[in-house]
Structure formats: C-alpha cells, structure tokens
C-alpha cells in the first residue's frame, strides 16, 4: 500500500526561526505518513494569492503566524468558537464551503493545563501581553472556569478590548486589564504571552511561588528565563516548547484526521523526541 502523503506548511513573516518543520518530521515518523511541511514567507499584499496557490498546490492546510492571524481570520468561511471570540486564527484548511479555521493556541493551552493537572476553576490568573496569544490564553482560562483573568500589558487599550470580548463570552470569569508590572494581588496562574525570552531577553515582571502554575508561550531551545525562575521557586511549569508541539498536533488532526489513537500518548512521545532533537542540535 502506498504511503499517504500530506502537504502543509506555515505562512507569515519572518519565518527563519520557526521550529515547526522539525516537529512535523517527528509527526511523520510517529504516524508513518509522509508529511511535507514548508515555510512560506509572504507580506500582507501577497496573502490572498499565496493562500490560493496553496490550495492549487494540494496542501491539506497551513499554519498562520505573525502578522497574518487576524487577516486570515477575516477570510474564513467557518471558524471554531475560540477563533470567533479571539478574532485570530493560526490553523486553516480548505473545506467544501471555503477556508475553515482553528485557534490552536487556545486549544493547546487548555489541553496542557488539563494534562498537567493544573487547577484552573476558581483561580485568579494573570496573562502578560495583549496580542493574539494573550487572547488565546485568556480564552482557555475562561473556558476552564478561572475566577478572574487580568491582562497586564503595555498596550492597555488592546488588553481592555480583549477583556471586553472575553468577558461577554465567559460572564462567570472577571476579565480586566492592568499595567505591565508585577501583579497587585496573588495569582494562582501566570502566563507569559509576550516575546520575552524568545525574540528578546528577559521575563515578565512577576515573582513565581510554590503552588503557582507558570505557562510560557515563548520558547527557546535552552529554555526561557521565566520558566527557569519558576522552576527555581518550586512553581509548576509548562514551557513554550510543549505548547508548540501541542499546537502542531491539533493542526495535524484538523488538516488530516491524524494522529489517531491515544492523543495524550502521541503528544508525550512527540514532546520527548522534540526536546531530544533540540538538545542534539538537529
């Protein structure tokens, strides 16, 4: 029997530091499917033409990163609830009705918190940032029953807009915005949804403590300062590399129906192999 081949990739600008091709090589080995994953850089003016060329080229779907998450959302014929409420998308596929979208940021954060046994319901959370990743983390926390979510951000207007949208979607959770500074009250969950630790050095202005759950959406092969500080303090940690693999896994399933079977086991194997790959410098 011929091996099934799937074509996918990532669109955005810039893409030179993307780790996604390595993850999909691992997925190919775990599933036995031939998965090709390309990086396709494009500017805003090229977006529609590039997406059309991907469809013509037989792609099963594609991931979306900066600066196109909101622009691709506006092109969707169908979107999942998280994408509609966040107004951004990072995975798309070509459906019968047109382009269909999924926000894998939100799904990956929620999945990671659940699998790590993090108690989210009734907890106070602080999300650092005001972009699409911050909105996705806020959506996951609201969907999981957090008592409150505060967006500590430099762009207070953007943070307030996210808080307003998510407050309407999850009325039992109190959403608010605050300055990009140390939280004024204790929080059980801290989320870094800024580039700190990834594209620039540093970490959010907070002091993790024992019993706190710290989740980073930034990632670096050697780890981020935020996660290192959280581990040193005895806090629970979920790093950005784990979230990245979970995002990719959700995309793969959205595009192709793969992986089948035990998705938890699949993710754990993929995360372990990916960390080993990075340590070996492959």
What does this structure look like?
With 282 residues, the protein is α/β, with parallel strands linked by helices. The protein has 2 domains: 5-102 and 244-280, Leucine Dehydrogenase, chain A, domain 1 (Rossmann fold, 3-Layer(aba) Sandwich), CATH 3.40.50; 106-238, NAD(P)-binding Rossmann-like Domain (Rossmann fold, 3-Layer(aba) Sandwich). Strand 1, helix 1 and strand 2 form a beta-alpha-beta unit. Helix 1 crosses helix 10 (263-280) and helix 5 packs across helix 9 (240-256). It has helices spanning 20-31, 47-56, 69-73, 81-86, 104-115, 132-143, 156-169, 225-232, 240-256, 263-280, and strands at 5-12, 34-41, 61-64, 78-79, 91-95, 98-102, 124-128, 148-152, 174-178, 189-192, 213-216, 236-238. Helix content is 40%, strand content 21%. The chain starts with a strand and ends with a helix.
User: If strands are numbered along the chain, what order do they take across the biggest sheet?
Assistant: 2-1-3-5-6-4
Low-confidence stretches: none
Rg from alpha-carbon coordinates: 18 Å
* CATH topology value of the largest domain: Rossmann fold
